[in-house]
Amino acid sequence: MGGSSGSFSGTDPSYPLKIEALTISSRIAQSSPYPCDDNTITVTFTPSLDLHRGCSPVVNITGLYRSVTQSRSDLEVAVKAGGSAMANKAAAWVQESGTLSVSVFLPTESTQEIAGGSEVVLSFTLQNPSHAQSSATVSLSVVLQDTPTMNDGYDDPYHAPATHDSSSIVVPGSDTTAVSTSGKDACNNSPQNGDADPLRVRAVSFTSFSVEQNSANPCADNEITVKFTTDGPLFQNCVSNLTLSGLSGSVTADQSLSLSSVPSGVIEPYGPWTNVGGSAAGWDNTGAAGTLLLPLAAGGLSSVVKGCQEYVIVFALKNPATPQGAAAVTLNIARVIDNPAISALAGSAIDPMQIDALTWSTKSISDTNTYPCFENVITLTIQPDVDLYASCVEYLEFSGFTGSMTGSSSLSIVDDSSTFNKTASWSMSSGILQVFLVGTMSKDTKYTISFTIRNGKEPQVAQDSIAINAPLLSSTNQQVMVGSVLQILEPTWAVSISSSSKNPCASNSISISVAPATAPIAKFCDSKITVRGIKGSATVDQEITGVVAATGGFSETAGWEYVEGVLLLELDSDLAVDTTYTYSFDVLNQPTKNSAQTITFINPSVFGSGKSDKLVGPENFIMQIDALEITGASAIQTLHWPCALNTITVIFTTNIALLSGCRYGDSYASQHATAPKITLSGLTGTREGSAVSATTSTDTPNPLHGLQPDLTVSTGEFIITPSESMGIGTHTFSFEVTNQEESHTAPSLV
């Protein structure tokens, strides 16, 4: 059979078995530029020719480097073709090369082809790394593979897989419509250019961070407020904890720390302490580290720390007792933010962990008494510049109280509040008063404390270095108070003594006066005043009873010792300044002459050591006792005839009273003999055996009248004994005798 032949155009698509090359256009975008976020990658490509099921098309996407999604063979990929969803596919994902391979058709899928020119959209999710990175350079290819029957004549090269690359893959650049910020970012400038480029991860940093406290008070429960803002979100799947560091100095022990205020659902409010990676807030103060871990709550986007949104966290720590400077606190977010935020310091009490030193806005002191041995009420007025807690301070110490004689003991105090224990501890040797707190001293309150001690005996200047201290807060915060106390004056006194009689054997009234000056004499320290040197008395040792003046001051009974003339005056009360106290008592003068004495008033102990005793006299008699002197003695007679009855009149004058019962000139031992007697010596010339008549006298009173003299004729000694004491002055008496027979010259009478 004959035939003819012709030619076909090789460029005609209808040319038998002509296979056109597949061309592809593509673009790629991502949903999140944030570290650790789940990032939806969307790849859209358009084939120029139909994709047939028989060629088993496989899409390969390469260059998705540095995602943290682990390699797997079943990464889910959503597929749409021509706007219609196809079945999801399980893709092979290789992390190291950043390659995703996915078959377009499933064996069980009913779809047989995708028309050329239709958009095919592949969507899958990768997790972004924790640190910033630039966009990846991504490429896309489609691999077609036929499935020939293995008959004789199979030509292997004609059936090898064919790879068709996309000419270029377009990245969004300034087109950020693919980026989703909902629930993640509240920033006004988000998203930014390039945020939709594949696997571009934008760095997150702190835009603000502050830490403030509400109390710089030692030992206070200190409320710490932390505020921070980032410029991007933080996700719990990557950031398990926020770490606050540098809260050093707190005495809060390691523990689960309850947070009083946290962003709900974002940060856990409390929980047991665990190490980094734990699930709850924990306070670690080991070695005064001052670290707080704040775990993010698990809960998807609801627990995300959103960008550009301020978060506030509040918790309490216990301040230390000792003052310290503020701490520079850091906020660290490991893995996401390389450089921790550092809190700025305001240079004031709000700076975190600044603990103010204890000072006193008021610290004054005063007292009520400057007299030795007297009780002295000391008043302390204080106001701290910080609150003081009994559990921390325990006690206040006041030192410098030298010069008191109050022994170490517990002292009662009086205060105008219920802040202090009413019993304080007092040490005389160290001069320290410890006042114990039972409540809180407020920095806004002025407190007054008073206590009573007794001044010492020794004079001293006022003590102006009284110091206040709270030793358990700090051993170096001792401060001198304003004012001075415990000035003790040096007493002086005026004394006098007088006696009423210089007459031997007379009752002598001694009057003693004491007038304190400058400072009183306290009975507490001096129960007796000693007066020495009242010599010349015949009153024996005894307890005597005297007369106390209306001003009082002395007991009526006093001790008397006659040899040295010592009087021990018992004080009945304190002897006040500018008041004269007088004590009078009677003693009996000795019969012999005595010169006036110098009297010594022994200084009371309150006068202090080294001061000379007070001397008085000799003046105002003070036991001066005069000797008997007879002056102007004369005798006359009436008749000078022998044997005549002769009346003799004797006239004499004495300088002292002649007291009955006193033998003038004798010693004290014989003073109680019958006395006095008047002796007229030398009365010779009387008749032997003649009688002497009774005396006559006109004196009034007249102890010399009617006395019967005793005359010894042979010696001429004439003795009469007055019937009673005779006063000072001239005395006259007369008596009759009989003259002798012989002539007789006038005798010398004594």
Architecture overview:
The protein is an all-beta fold. Helix content is 1%, strand content 36%. The chain folds into five domains: 24-147 and 160-170, Immunoglobulin-like (Sandwich), CATH 2.60.40; 206-342, Immunoglobulin-like (Sandwich), CATH 2.60.40; 372-480, Immunoglobulin-like; 492-616, Immunoglobulin-like (Sandwich), CATH 2.60.40.1170; 630-738, Immunoglobulin-like (Sandwich), CATH 2.60.40. Strands 1-2-10-5-7-8-4-11-12 form a nine-stranded mixed beta barrel. β42 and β43 form a beta hairpin. The protein is rod-shaped, with a radius of gyration of 64 Å.
Mean pLDDT: 87
| CATH architecture annotation name of the largest domain | Sandwich
Derived structural class: mainly beta
Hey, roughly how much beta strand do the residues contain?
A: 35-45%
The separation of the N and C termini measures: 226 Å
Proportion of helical residues: under 10%
**So what's the CATH class of the largest domain?**
Mainly Beta
Q: How is the main sheet built? A: 9 strands, mixed, barrel
| Number of self-contained structural domains | 5
Instruction: Give the uncertain stretches in residue-range form.
Output: 271-280, 668-673
Radius of gyration, whole Å: 64 Å
User: Strand order within the widest sheet?
Assistant: 1-2-10-5-7-8-4-11-12
Shape assignment: rod-shaped
Tally of contiguous helical segments: 1
Q: Which fold name is given in CATH as the topology of the largest domain?
A: Immunoglobulin-like
Tally of extended strands?
Answer: 47
